[in-house]
Hints:
Elements: H1 3-13, E1 37-41, H2 45-57, E2 62-67, E3 72-73, H3 78-82, E4 92-93, H4 96-102, E5 105-108, E6 111-115, E7 120-123, E8 128-130, E9 133-136, E10 140-142, H5 152-155, H6 166-177, E11 183-187, H7 198-213, E12 218-223, H8 231-241, E13 246-250, H9 251-254, E14 257-261, E15 266-269, E16 272-275, E17 278-281, E18 285-287, H10 289-293, E19 303-306, E20 311-312, E21 318-320, E22 325-326, H11 334-352, E23 361-371, E24 374-385, E25 390-398, H12 405-424
Parallel strand pairs: 1-2, 1-9, 2-5, 9-21, 11-12, 11-17, 12-13, 19-22
Antiparallel strand pairs: 3-4, 6-7, 7-8, 10-18, 14-15, 15-16, 19-20, 23-24, 24-25
Amino acid sequence: MSGMDRRRFLLHAAALGATTLSPGSLAAAKPAGAPFRVVVIGGGYGGATAARYLKLIKPDLDVTLVERTQRYVSCPGSNEVIGGLHPASWLERRYENLRRNSGIRIVCDEVKELERSRRQVILDTGTRLPYDRVVLSPGVAFRWDAWAGYDEAASRRIPHAWQGGPQTLELREELAAMRRGGVMVIVAPPNPYRCPPGPYERASLAAYYLKQRNPRAKILIIDPKTQFSKQALFLKGWEDLYPGMIEWVPMSAEGAIDRIDVTRRTVHLDFGQHVADVLNVIPPQKAGTLAERSGLTDESGWCPIDARHFLSSRDPFIHVIGDACSAPPMPKSAFAANTQAKVAAAAIADAAEGRDAGTPTLINHCYSFLAPDYAISVTGVYRYSESEHGLTATATGETPMDADRRLEARSARAWQRHFARDAFG
Length: 425
């Protein structure tokens, strides 16, 4: 199989959505025989996929993956842990297969600086990694100044649990210890944010847990929005599974969030207040700290990119993928990060060989569990538009109202297994 045939095969056979590439002069002049060096920063679904597909598409690339932890703890799936469906260890993802089967160099260290003028990644240990391209997948950071009363210190008392890790277990333990007939209040963030259906899946699986152990408990969702992802499907599911247990309070009902009293576990709105036994505040978000510190964000707090190949609008040698990039109307999800990673990887492979890239088509598919045997999903297909200078949705769809939710749940379980393998090898 020729190199070009191999690249096309891998792109179109990828289990979670094939991608093609966009026009862009990414060719780089390299001395004959010199390795083309790519540093991938961030070992989540976006970064792991990028590193793996870089080597699959062009095995002679020199690929280094930098991730500060030995194991990645997945945020996707964390709602299932909170709802008691899995142990916390179920969220762990390891890098051994990437190192062993793909020949990727794994460096466990923190990135201190992106020295863009010299094209070097400087690590906390002082190690310098020169690069021809960077793939940056830093995830999200939180806007701690957005809501009065809820800052980073407050989050250590009232967990957001919006990053995989210890707070996932903290929230699960609080749910287990909640008084009989108590109230859980979830404060959802404004758009855009990581995983648009996530707060509503969390409410659903918390209700599943409470229905078995604390059936008189209630869940309130305080929402600064007036609509949300898969809304009709969630509302129908709550009516079917948890009648009278979950209440959604949109901004149009009681106004905007005024402040959050952490000590009294009270959310104050323009026209009311709600006291919680268990309070879960998911704050507004922005691109990960490294992106902001490196000057790759704009006034929105997210990273502007050329959606043909996810190349930063601020630096022609850095691709930004996943939650940190601004690629509307594509949502911020693990599936989106995985698809974007493949676009960036193939664009870099083209650049290493002195070729321009083609026009991308991307896919996002998102499952949400409302119970172990009840799932719903939404799909979007996106294509780069020359006239719009960005992505446009060419097809969308949701689970039909009369669909078999058990079958959807089985499909979701199969997707989870294959998705993890696709990203982490």
